[in-house]
TrEMBL record:
Residues 54-122 form the GHMP kinase N-terminal domain. One of its GO terms (molecular function) is ATP binding. Coiled coil: none annotated. The keyword Kinase applies. It comes from the Bacteria. Transmembrane segments: none annotated. InterPro entries: GHMP_kinase_C_dom, GHMP_kinase_N_dom, PduX, Ribosomal_Su5_D2-typ_SF, Ribsml_uS5_D2-typ_fold_subgr. PANTHER family: 4-DIPHOSPHOCYTIDYL-2-C-METHYL-D-ERYTHRITOL KINASE, CHLOROPLASTIC, L-THREONINE KINASE. Pfam families: GHMP_kinases_C (PF08544), GHMP_kinases_N (PF00288). The keyword ATP-binding applies. This is Threonine kinase. Keywords: ATP-binding, Kinase, Nucleotide-binding, Transferase. Residues 193-265 form the GHMP kinase C-terminal domain.
Amino acid sequence: MRHFGICPGSCGEFIQGILEDSEYLVSYAVNIYSKAQIEERKNNIRKGPYKARKALQEVFKYFNLDVEDTKNISLIVNSDIPIGKGMASSTADIGATIKATLSFLGKELDSHEISKIAAKVEPTDSIFMENNCIFNPLKGEVLKKLGYIDGIRILVLEPDEKLNTQSIRRENNYFLKKQFNKEKIKEAFEMLEEGFKKNDLKLVGKASTISSLLNENIHKKDGLKDIIKITEEFGAYGVNIAHSGTVIGIILDKEMNYKKLEEKLILKKLNKKYKRMYSLDVIRGGVK
């Protein structure tokens, strides 16, 4: 019998930085997905992606089951999430696999427990949570719930460039640079929280833009200041980035004509770097 799981991707984070001496982020889910399928087989066993396979084993460990029992489980993962861009491709693979494994075992776990299992595989983000929250990616724990604002659309600017999230974190001065931004990022987190309380996308966008600019000392995004200027003139709410990836997201609502904004970006030749421009809808997170 086949068992399935599905998990959305993201387009980076609204905000990411140091709070209370730990790293926290607020990511958001978008309508692109990873889908996992598992079944017990005697032959032609597919191992699936390495991290997804490890997630399957971590679920067995969580329930004190013998990991050896996973050797006859075939895992297939299909995804339409770009890889190496900061769009949660591996996180979504992991989440979808955890859900499929839970189905296989006839078990259920809430999003908090699923996040903690995912964090054992690699630093994760908050796309497993239905609503937006301030989230510890290393522990898979929620610091504070923020809520959800309906009707957000993202214009994604995706370059060819790829980036390994783990390699960014392994740099010797990664956390020193994060610490340098600590006071300003704290203000941005407070602004973001206020934006969610008031259902105010302008505040959410402003906080995101601040975080995007602060991250320039960790991974510089080509043309970011030009993109921010164009989006401000257009009337968009703000710009967010993948803090350890390469994509940029422009925060809009569904009433805004993203095609006109795309034209303005192309006029400034920003499509030479960001060769793919397309819109995605922000959705509630969670695995299914």
